[in-house]
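Hi, here's the filled form for the chain we discussed.

Project: internal
Contact: R.S.
Residues: 689
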Amino acid sequence: MKKTKKAIALVLAGALMSGCFVGCNLITRDTNKDLAQVVATVDITRSSAFAEGGMYADYKDVVSETQILKRDMLAYYQDYGSTYQNYNNWSYADTFEWIIQSLTIRQLDVQYAMIYFIREGVEDENNQPYTVAGFNAAVEAGKTKGDELAGLSYFLTPDEEARALYATRRIFNNTLDANEPKYIDSEDDNSSSTEEQRTLPTGVETTNSDYFDAEYKVYTGKNKPDDCGTYEALDGSTATSRKRAYDDLLTQLRSYNLLSEGENTNDIEKLAYFEYERKSSYESAIISKLAKEFEKQAENAITKESVKEKYDNRYNDQSAAYEADKSSFESKLDSISNDTFLLTAPEANYGYVINILLPFSALQSAQVSNLKPDADDTQGNSFKQRASILEKLTATDQRGSWFNGEKDYAYEGTGYTGGVDGRTYLFFEESLNTEDENPKYEPMKNYYGKYTYNGYVHKNEDGTYELAPNKITIDDFIDEMEGYLKSAGLTISNVEAKRSDYYTQTNYYNNDNKVEYKNFVYYAGKVGFGKDFDANQMFVAGTPENNAFSIINELSFAYNTDTAGLNPYLGYSIVTGKTSFVDEFEYASQKACEGGAGTYYIVPSDYGWHIIYCTFSFKDNGNGEIRPFDYNHDDREKEGTFSYYFYESIKADKVSEYSSNRQNMITNAYSDCKTIYEKAFNDLLNIDS
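And the returned structure, exactly as it came back:
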């Protein structure tokens, strides 16, 4: 699949082509001598801990003084500083003060990490501890081979080193991707579509942080995209457009004296600037490795008893608070997430629903808006006339832009077809089928992925598609939904049977002449999970609880025109009292939550048909408690369980606190080991003046 011009707006991480220095006198003396000035030095061996008899005296030879050049400050500005400057509305003085502090602290971290790995006996990929002798041998071997990064690479496994190189190459491809579109003929851009872009499910093509492609290369136009591993050329890219983007990069580097005369520009990896970015990636990998060691130490301090105590305390605190003030609970309903928990409720039947809206057509909507009261309706309602319009309402699969939108996400595969021949197209193959040892993307969650496009599809030779979605009635949708749920091994029971007299009923009022909203229920059912619904398992892939949720979520993306309801955590929050929802929806959603997870109601409103599915509701556990979740320490590593998410939230807090303390320790303990020469970059601090 190819990336399109619109999509590359998301890959400006390199930002080298922003032209941020042009016209602002950022470089006042554009000479090698100026940019080669040392603006800071860092050497933690200046600390007394490295003096004779000090705790780190035996490791002194591992670290040597690091010099930070003015050129490094400009490079860091290009990579990160300009983004932070714009986001925080900083002055240039603020920005470059932040940059010099960031660069010096970074070097303190790298130097400390190297000492830490050796002193603490951290092991390499062969389960051998890092040693001073091993480091010195690696450096000597590097001198022989001309490898200036040998000292850093000693502390990285081959996989970690390969990932660092992959990250470096991505920086340059992202930079070139950001600049190339202006050289691509707009007539070649076939990404435009008259179809409105459909919201994508959460998790589509989320890069796996551990993924790397050893064959991945930087595409400069002097090579071929097919020789660059998994790199995907921009839509409409040619060798000429890519070369022009690369020439722009070289021109920019020259203007900042980041490219010297005589450098071999035919091979981007021979550039000194590439080596600078590669060194930065190695340093980032070492800092990440240190952070993982800190994480292990922080986690070792967490006990089963301490987590259970936090769970019990939080449950007790919430119980007391919500019993005293129900509104405080209701205000938190929409904030629930993987790390923000509601462990109880002031009463049963609060919950969440997914609302799939099958809308009236524009013409039908206008008709509904202009209806006069029914002839025999003394309260001025037009329920009977609306019912006759509802009977004619049809819906269609809304996923057309996933074929012809910004990117083609479709592929032919085997899935649920509703018994209709010719339905062979599914979506997000690379994000759903991630069984490889080194998957590029994280697996999508809460999206079942087997519901085929409901319509005719023909793929043209130019890669575009001709689409003709099938029109379905509310009865057709019910058949599709229940058939799909059953195909996943789930059972269906009727709560309220389909109303054969629905479109001809004459009574919408009760004996008190008030609207009787139960009369608007067209149909209701409930998914069976083979056992009682277990909220602890709702996000565990492959469980009945998660399969049902994932199927309804996928059907919502297929048909729902209530786009605010796409990508929910659990859906719309539903309270037990009066709401701001339309009356029919309020009645049905509250009834669904009374029925519990898996219960669904189908009702109309002036917007069309609502399929309202309860994803979760608070219920009495049979012991007089509303306690849907239980912490089980043995499940803390089982992804998706409540215990996993609760433990991870506790661990995240502990790791953050521990890492922050260790970072402060490093910064404070070695603050005298860095020297900043502000005069060398004073011109950068006075750009605003």
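Let me know if anything looks off before we file it.
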